[in-house]
Amino acid sequence: MQEGKLLNFVKELAILLETKPSEEIIFSKGKALLENLVAVDDWLPEEFCKAHPQYYQQYLLYADPLDRFSVVSFVWGPGQKTPLHNHTVWGMVGQLRGQERSADYHQQADASFEADESFLCQPGQVATVSPNTHDIHVVENALSDQTSISIHIYGGNIGRIERAVFDPTTGAEKLFISGYANSVTPNLWNTASNRV
Ligand code: FE
Fold first, then answer.
1. d(CA 86, ligand 1 centre) in Å
2. Distance in angstroms (rounded) separating the CA atoms of residues 153 and 158
3. pLDDT means per 10 residues in the chain (196 residues)?
4. Structure letter (DSSP) for residue 18
5. Total domain count for the chain?
């Protein structure tokens, strides 16, 4: 039964966040909710799956009115890749389609950044980011001939948060606000014709 999957996810996450959980709880109970959402790739409407020829796309699917969380589909064309960037809030990345490679980076004494080993995210898997432990990374589509899609959940409205990209060699920081690619969000309640 694919109808209402996103609505159910948003409801369950709102109920969880209402308890003001620790990050540890978010990364266990919240992660389980996201694993469930990305377990079967049958619910994301076509409009929010479209790759751009040049840039990876960030489509807002839902934002909590109190800015406690946002839900975004990231769509990567072949070869597309983020710059080195941070988030400033907790985040969970659930692979829905294709494969993404992500690597956490850590700043060294000379201000440059060095990567940990990269991690290949397969459909159904969930990775995390956190300003407390590992907030700076690079993500790329691991497939050279297919679109990859992941569903990102953040502890704020990620498209409206001022955050940073970094030059990996010099460590120089540049602030940015990402915004979203879409001007219209999906109707989570129109489950008869719109399977979200
Ligand atoms: Fe990221």
1. 6
2. 9
3. 81 97 98 98 96 97 96 97 97 98 96 94 97 96 97 98 98 97 92 57
4. H
5. 1
